[in-house]
Amino acid sequence: AGGRRRRGGGGGGGGDDEKKEGYEVKQRPVLDSNFVMTQDKLVRLDEEMVRKELTPADNDGNNEEDAAAEDPLNGLRIHCWVLVRAGKREMAEDIFVEASTGNTCPTDESPYLGIEAVFNHKNYWVDMQQCPVKKMRFALDDFQSWEFVFMESTVAAPKAQNDEDTKPEGGDGQQADSTVAMQGTEEIRESDHVLDLPPSWVERLFIDRALFLQRYAKENDEVKKTKDYRKSRVELFAENSLKHGMVQRITVFSDLARTNAVEVQEVFANRKDKLRKRVRYYKPGTQIQIGQPESLIQEYFDPGRPDALMELVEMPDGREFTFYHMATLDGMVKRIETFTRNRAPTKNFAMHKVIETFEGHEQRLNYRSITFEPIDPNTDAPQVKLQIEHPRKMTHKFDRNPEVEADKDLRKRTFFTGLRPPKIHLVFHYGQDRITAATRTYTTEKTINGDNFIMSEYVVDPFAKPMKFTEQRDEYIKLIGEEKAAISDFRDADREAQKILETRENDEKHPQLVKSLYVQLQDKKQFEANKPKEEDADAALKYDYLASYLPKRSKKTALTKQEAQAVKDACLKALKERLIDRAHIIETRLEEEQAALTKRQLGYHRQDKEKSSDDDEYEKYVHEAQFKIQILKQRRDRHEEIAKQKFKEMIERLQSDPRLSILNQ
């Protein structure tokens, strides 16, 4: 293939040349990819560079080993660092903390050469392991690996009940009084000589709780910590140190001098309104409204608000609410408001559209929107509630109801109230294996006799039974009522949104913080300490049982005998009248119950026994009345006893009162 034919040479002489064949195969060139060749070349260059980089490193390692071999103090220098054991402080593994830098590393990646001992405020453990630090075990209760010095780490030895070795020599079989502790396989008794933990020469570390809660030092009359980064600044505040509860503020700048802020993130804690975070954005030439420099504000809230608000976004041309839909009554997820022009603080909003989405609505509603008529930019917009009364279009969307046929299950309902004539358009769900959906449109016509309608529909199923005129009329009347209900729902939703905004404005003007129990107790102590002493005297006077009977000048001068006797008589008289009034109340109730029972008994006996059918009811009433009478008699008798006791105690109290001591002379 690819050869060519040559003519044979003439004559039969042959000569020295070999006889050539009639066909010659054409040699194809070797095809090489330039891309593959380039990649191979790059790989070879990378390998060469890596080899060059590794060669000095190996030399450096050898140099370090040589230097360590030449260093006479290698491994003899003493250094201290921190060991944090796993189990507490949510630590999953043992780690080392370098005291000089604060860097941490796992114990199996330790840069240290060896460990002689570890210690804390209770004991001292000597390392008994002959292995590198990376392979050490830090179970301090393992006596084979760590040897403790003081008795705090001893473990009580198990005592066998039938072991004769635990009995004292020559004893009667009772256990020895001295306690036994285990140190590895050896037993240590209290009588043995052991080391006692010496007292520390360092004072016990104490941090005042108020200073601990303060956390940071004062900077420009604020307790905070500030750290500057490239085009940003982070400010940290102590909890409850600021009246609005801010604990962190991150400011992002557009210049290296940190003068032009473009974004501010604020984090809050312990806010009563559940505000968690606020983000402010600044853009030249764009403002939410006049006098408000932000171009966008995002606020995030924790669960627990009465209005279930989760996020609030303020924009120049709109506003967005996001809710915790599981906590709302209607399952609202989001409400989006858009305006036709930027907001002004002293003018009404020119509404363009309001969109509300739902999840888990009882009527399977998942979408609701209202579009408003455009307003001339040169005219002031009316109040929002008046704009809602005359919308341009309203739309409702519903989820699929599997219990209803698709051609009868409403998917979308639109009220074209701004059209002339008005229309109501219905779109139903797609049926199984259907690419079209049934629709129905009602057009309202104004006539002399009143409103009339024309219905046009598209039916997917050609064999479906057509609607009767009465069914169309009933559905039309129902839709007119739903249109009015939709306007009322949008009015209520707008009222709730305005209430949320008013609450937010009030929360920002008067922020409230949720204080911890410790802070509440401290505030209470501070309030009591700052309370004037005169109030304490007035409080004691308020609960003085003789305050209403003593003359006004009794605070300055002592009472005379006549005045003291008058005070005593007035006090006893008041107590006697109070006890008599109580006894009169009990006696009156007792007489009323007895009279009612007697009246009921007389009426029952006058009835015809043969025609009477309320014997059970009469017996029940008599039983309850007798029970009440018995209780009232017991209260009367008990009150008589208590009255005598109270009167006697009051006499003794008056005799021992120092202000009436003149009567005892």
What does the model show?
With 665 residues, this protein is of the alpha+beta class. The protein is 30% helix and 23% strand. It has helices at residues 34-70, 209-214, 384-389, 469-509, 517-530, 533-542, 561-606, 615-656; strands spanning 4-5, 23-24, 82-84, 95-97, 104-106, 117-119, 124-127, 146-148, 155-156, 180-183, 186-189, 218-219, 222-229, 232-237, 246-253, 261-268, 275-281, 296-301, 309-315, 318-323, 332-339, 351-358, 365-372, 391-398, 410-416, 423-428, 439-447, 450-458. The strands form five sheets. It has a 17-stranded antiparallel β-sheet. A hairpin with a 6-residue loop joins strand 22 and strand 23. Helix 7 runs antiparallel to helix 8 (615-656). The longest helix has 46 residues, at 561-606.
Quick rundown:
This protein has about 675 residues and is an alpha+beta fold. The protein has helices spanning about 35-70, 210-215, 385-390, 470-510, 515-530, 535-540, 560-605, 615-655, and strands spanning about 5, 25, 80-85, 95, 105, 115-120, 125, 145-150, 155, 180-185, 185-190, 220, 220-230, 230-235, 245-255, 260-270, 275-280, 295-300, 310-315, 320-325, 330-340, 350-360, 365-370, 390-400, 410-415, 425-430, 440-445, 450-460.
Stretches where pLDDT is under 50 for at least 5 consecutive residues are 1-16, 153-192
**How many helix segments?**
8
Sheet with the most strands, sense and barrel status = 17 strands, antiparallel
Percent of residues in helices: 25-40%
Termini gap = 152 Å
Oligomer: single chain
- Approximately how much beta-strand content do the residues carry? 15-25%
Rounded to an integer in angstroms, the radius of gyration calculated over CA atoms is 48 Å
Structural class: alpha+beta
- How many β-strand runs? 28
- Give the overall shape, derived from the CA principal axes: flat
Average of the residue pLDDT scores:
82
